[in-house]
């Protein structure tokens, strides 16, 4: 490509609304342009990145035996009603009507359509396993789209769906996809981590997320640097930090703690470590709608003062099947006879269901609210001052927590770019997608689903790797691999000739090169390519040529290297290998 | 590809709703599956065809210097209001609302978004010419979607938009696209014709359609087999068939023609050729809304009895700028004092505006309605019996019409798969897309737009080439180029080995081959591949191998050719060259 024949239009400043690096840099580099909130045009440079990601994903999906098809963007409501998602999916599902007032959706995923295909196409166990995927435009009507491609409304996603005879087959299909994802993110040149993830409302027994490591990520990833263990903090088991509960040493004392409605303030007032305190979190579960006599049930969850509640774990407690909410102040006053800030498990006004985090259940001589405004108990002990508690893992892992299998847990931030899911028969049951099994009887297809956020990957790669000059693309997804910058071509015609030679030579070697043949100042040219983030720059300068050299600089290197003109191509190819 | 790892699912019968060959065969061959009216899933085989077409289009667009980007499917109403198309575009434009009740459209084309990009990105004449294109999902909410991919609602289209400094530049860009389209349709292996087309409501001075020749096409194409001339019948000039008007020989006679309200019946009753008759067509033009005193104006258009009115041509008559309609029976009675069927230009009840087709204006001694039920005039002559008429080209060309530039005109049917358009400043004016010209002053961008119906091409190719066994793909867009069919592999292990050898050998040569390693009967296998339409089949049979031969059969050939096993690959490569 010659820059003069291409469209390059960088901006000095990004619009104020660009809050994150990827949004700011993709806008400044001219890779995307906003059309409406969460809806973008991929400009030529941005589309090249998108296509490269798509191609890697496609190649690896094909290699793994998945078969590409293309399901439509606009899907009929009837199928979504069959699966129940027409009702259950929130406002992010864009529901539309055609000219005849028939209901449709803009697809956010395609479980319904692919299951409909499966029930029509798969007749016999002989056709299994089967894995269909497509790379297609998705739409999610985010309430507040932001962060550019990180949380857009219209985006490109690869979604695959596996169909198997039984659970064992479905697990095997899941493993094949897991391995394919490992290869994909490896080939894309990203630092990433596969983490066990919550199966959430989709159910099933297994789920993994693929997370691009970046300080700006919204997800917290728990891992053990010494083992293979890695899980989203939502799911990661938090160990009990106290092996054996110590014998009580203190008496239970009602202690004045004026204006100390938080554990941090109590610990400070009493001169005790925060880890001696226990915090009280009051939740409520509502009765089922058909339960006429049903009462709201109030729960007291206890966590060590320095720990945080993990709401996903709370949601899995027995009795929380229909969901939970935080109790209202009125409910708290009614149950505890006290305002929030001084609540505790001893002497509640009414009986409440108490669940202690595993660590809290092993504490002794702890400090907790006294259900009296301005007072806490010190020296509280299980068994002596209050009954032995029911206990469960309620908290988020904290960096440094011991891993029960050895070593310690660490935490880093990530951006979710892939998710694999064991679905079981959730959709095949709803849509009655059956096949004739070896015994000649109909059986439900066992399914898995596997997503990759194609457009999100481009943003995640930038969040992971950029500097104050701009983007630093990994070679695999850079819009161009090499840029050749002639400097002083108007003074010395050899500059243009040699630039052209190197450009054509690299192209012949299959390298995606761009020759910047525009008539612009070198400083502007360099700054533009640093912003765009092309991994390797070759500068062919009038001055260098006098010494018989050109300069080669990797975007990620601090300085350029001079190489003899005749070795330029070989040196560039060599340097590219590790970019 | 191995068939056992792929998804092949053909149907013996197509659903009753499949009215045309392409819809029927794509459904039977398992290339598409209906999701809703006019909305289809491209199954794996169908998607391969789609992608091949896309790739040829992309390569040629890039070669022609167009730059690919990707504009969104969901576009904000504001831009469509700026262009005026929010109001003017009919019900085919699917207008939707997001969760915040803001208006959007599903794009049928992207003139608005691309012009918005241009007004933000193009600042200077130095950036011109520029041509942006994308290959994207389109949506047109057809009132009655049918014929499968021929008239779907969701479909894939390539649309390109050129931007130039001035009209001359825009014409040059148009010519470049015209040539690119010639290469594209040539490479796709289709019999096609570029025809001059009506510019319709879009305006501008030039437009060409690219038509795939097929007897089932909806468009009529007029061409001269001896010259380059070709035009859509909508636009094709119909010559005057009479060089000099002859002197009158007959008297004007009021002649009874009972129960003969059509020219055919009159000619029959009177024993005269149909070409001696003149038919009357009564049109009405309504006054402008702001024209308080405005009256409906009644027009009488006269055509020779064997000719058809061309409504596009009628729409261009002076006085028809705001459109026209056929007159109501009441209006006809009022103006002519007679029921339809016996109308004519002589002695109308009220004055009407008469326009004769060029040929009619040169007729003499002609037969026309007498404005009296059951009567016609014979021996009517211009100048003598009625005033000399205003005349214009009002009719469709008929096969065999002389071409004023020599030779005769022929007609064939076509399917429109591409359209290039000179737009001028229609959209740049509406959206105020300007650039700074060489004189430093802002000027409006001159535009062209260029569409190709990617998914429609696959259907058009089938309409052009199929037989009673199924599809006959041109090699360039076939889902696979060669299928290798082993026969009797269970009796002779050499069958499998040699099939495998040939398969791998062809793959190495870059041929897209599929090895049918499924355990199915040869008759079923052959019928399936004939239905799917793979251009070349190599049959490796137990019996053939005993003679040391395999059979090679092109899908378009009547019979197979036997070639020695060791020459199979070379023979296949050779035969492929002309497919």
Automatic annotation (TrEMBL), chains A, B:
InterPro entries to which the protein is assigned, alphabetical: aa-tRNA-synt_IIb, aa-tRNA-synth_II, aa-tRNA-synth_II/BPL/LPL, Anticodon-bd, Anticodon-bd_dom_sf, Pro-tRNA-ligase_IIa, Pro-tRNA-synth_IIa_bac-type, Pro-tRNA-Synthase_IIa_type1
Enzymatic reactions: tRNA(Pro) + L-proline + ATP = L-prolyl-tRNA(Pro) + AMP + diphosphate
EC number: 6.1.1.15
Alphabetized CDD domains for the sequence: ProRS-INS, ProRS_anticodon_short, ProRS_core_prok
GO molecular function: aminoacyl-tRNA deacylase activity; ATP binding; proline-tRNA ligase activity
Cell location: Cytoplasm
Family indicated by similarity: Belongs to the class-II aminoacyl-tRNA synthetase family. ProS type 1 subfamily.
Domain topic, free-text comment: Consists of three domains: the N-terminal catalytic domain, the editing domain and the C-terminal anticodon-binding domain.
The name this protein goes by in its record: Proline--tRNA ligase
């Amino acid at each position: 490509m010659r820059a003069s024949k291409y469209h390059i239009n960088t901006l000095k400043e990004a619009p104020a609304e660009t809050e994150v690096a990827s949004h700011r840099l993709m806008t400044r580099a001219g890779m995307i342009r906003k059309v409406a909130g969460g809806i973008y045009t991929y400009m030529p440079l941005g589309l090249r990145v998108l296509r490269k990601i798509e191609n890697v994903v496609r190649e690896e999906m094909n290699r793994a035996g998945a078969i590409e098809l293309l399901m439509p963007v606009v899907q009929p409501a009837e199928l979504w009603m069959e699966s129940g998602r027409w009702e259950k999916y929130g406002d992010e599902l864009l529901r539309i009507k055609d000219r005849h007032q028939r209901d449709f959706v803009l697809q956010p995923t395609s479980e319904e359509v692919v299951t409909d295909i499966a029930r029509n196409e798969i007749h016999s166990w002989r056709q299994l396993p089967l894995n269909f995927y497509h790379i297609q435009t998705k739409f999610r009507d985010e309430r507040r789209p932001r962060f550019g491609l990180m949380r857009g409304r219209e985006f490109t996603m690869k979604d695959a769906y596996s169909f198997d005879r039984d659970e064992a087959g479905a697990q095997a299909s899941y493993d094949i996809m897991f391995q394919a994802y490992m290869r994909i993110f490896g080939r894309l040149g990203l630092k990433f981590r596969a983490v066990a993830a919550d199966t959430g409302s989709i159910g099933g027994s297994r789920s993994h997320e693929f997370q691009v490591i970046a300080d700006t990520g919204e997800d917290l990833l728990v891992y053990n640097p010494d083992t293979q263990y890695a899980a989203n903090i939502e799911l990661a088991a938090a160990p009990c930090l106290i092996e054996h509960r110590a014998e009580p040493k203190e008496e239970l004392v009602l202690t004045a703690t004026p204006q100390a409605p938080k554990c941090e303030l109590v610990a400070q007032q009493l001169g005790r470590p925060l880890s001696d305190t226990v915090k009280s979190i009051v939740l409520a579960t509502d009765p089922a709608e058909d339960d006429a006599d049903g009462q709201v049930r109030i729960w007291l969850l206890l966590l060590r003062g320095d720990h945080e509640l993990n709401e996903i774990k709370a949601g899995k407690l027995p009795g929380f099947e229909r969901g939970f909410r935080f109790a209202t102040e009125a409910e708290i006053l009614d149950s505890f006879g006290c305002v929030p800030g001084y609540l505790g498990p001893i002497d509640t006004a009414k009986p409440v269901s108490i669940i202690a985090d595993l660590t809290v259940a092993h504490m002794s001589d702890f400090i907790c609210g006294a259900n009296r405004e301005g007072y806490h108990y010190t020296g509280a002990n299980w068994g002596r001052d209050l009954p032995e508690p029911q206990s469960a893992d309620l908290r988020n892992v904290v960096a440094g927590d011991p891993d029960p299998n050895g070593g310690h847990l660490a935490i880093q931030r990530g951006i979710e770019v892939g998710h694999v899911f064991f679905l079981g028969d959730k959709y095949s049951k709803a849509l009655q997608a059956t096949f004739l099994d070896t015994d000649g009887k109909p059986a439900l297809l066992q399914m898995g689903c596997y997503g990759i956020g194609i457009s999100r990957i481009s943003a995640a790669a930038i969040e992971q790797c950029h500097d104050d000059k701009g983007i630093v693309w990994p070679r695999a997804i850079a819009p161009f691999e090499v840029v050749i910058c002639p400097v002083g071509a108007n003074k010395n015609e050899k500059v243009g000739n040699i630039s052209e030679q190197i450009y054509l030579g690299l192209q012949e070697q299959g390298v995606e090169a761009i020759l910047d043949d525009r008539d612009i100042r070198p400083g502007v040219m360099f700054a533009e390519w640093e912003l765009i983030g092309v991994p390797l720059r070759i500068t062919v300068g009038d001055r260098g040529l006098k010494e018989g050299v050109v300069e080669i600089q990797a975007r990620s290197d601090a300085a350029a290297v001079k190489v003899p003109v005749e070795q330029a191509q070989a040196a560039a190819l060599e340097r590219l290998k590790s970019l």
